[in-house]
Amino acid sequence: MIGGLSSICPSRRGDISSLVLRAMITGTCVSLVNACIAGLLFVPPLDCVQLFKGSTFDAADESIQKCCQDLFQSTYNNGTIWFEEPWNNVQNITLFFSQCCQCCGLSDVPVCI
User: Fold this and answer.
1) Residue 20 to residue 69: CA distance in whole angstroms
2) What are the extents of the domains in the chain?
3) What pLDDT digit, counting tens, does each position of 66-75 carry?
4) Given 48, 57, 79, 88, which residue has the most CB atoms within 10 angstroms?
């Protein structure tokens, strides 16, 4: 870029060189600010399995409520309780399921009965 502009106007080579350095620094700062804003707006997904493994199943915890609702929505009761993705490969899922039924006070959910 410097070479092309310098050949068009050789007398302003110093001005062009100083502007290029400022433009590079400004571009770097703008990119860093954009990355910071994207980092602030990103909300990582809730890992319910890890939450269940280390949780005491407190009914007041909003994350537990959300994960229990997700577990209930992926549960089928056709004589036996069956779980769909991503819950069907989780070890101790029936333990987590029974704890969700007990802690969250959701006895009206058909799969808890």
Assistant:
1) 56
2) 2-41, 48-103
3) 888 888 777 7
4) 48
